[in-house]
Amino acid sequence: QKEVEQDPGPLSVPEGAIVSLNCTYSNSAFQYFMWYRQYSRKGPELLMYTYSSGNKEDGRFTAQVDKSSKYISLFIRDSQPSDSATYLCAMSATGNQFYFGTGTSLTVIP
Amino acid sequence: EAGVAQSPRYKIIEKRQSVAFWCNPISGHATLYWYQQILGQGPKLLIQFQNNGVVDDSQLPKDRFSAERLKGVDSTLKIQPAKLEDSAVYLCASSLVRQGGSYEQYFGPGTRLTVT
Q: What confidence tier does B84 reach under pLDDT thresholds 50, 70, 90?
């Protein structure tokens, strides 16, 4: 079983839609959670960082962590064509070695 | 603030040749990471440095891969000899050191390696 599972998509939504991206994990020791956005032929760009459980909001982005279900989510409100990218989740138990999901490819159609 | 710099951006070599990648982290970031990202997959950690020392190299294929970080700043990753399956994007990332661990990694643009 992989440490982190992420649906690769692709996911296609109309502009303005709410997007939900998810990851599940198997290691109950994970407590550091991050979401990255990666445009084609670019390095990953940090979007959200969350420690332990709960929600965190930043503009149109909301990250949720449910440690009891070993499930994390990223919500994008009012999605824009510029949000079209691959979204990677990453997590760690110690804040050192991070395990990445395979990424979900998102396309927002104007 | 300048980001993580990497060079070259692209490299094409034949199998069994050697290749080296360079990374300059964000100023003041003590922790530096090298990741391998194969097409369609998430980044896989190859090696993590904190200052000059190696924190984790458990997934580095040490028979062909080597990395160093001199003076705790720049780093180089070398592959010798390269295999076809080494074709990937090699990403460098850096982060501050915080109590309890490092996080909030910032990535460079990557070096896309093609082995023919």
A: very high
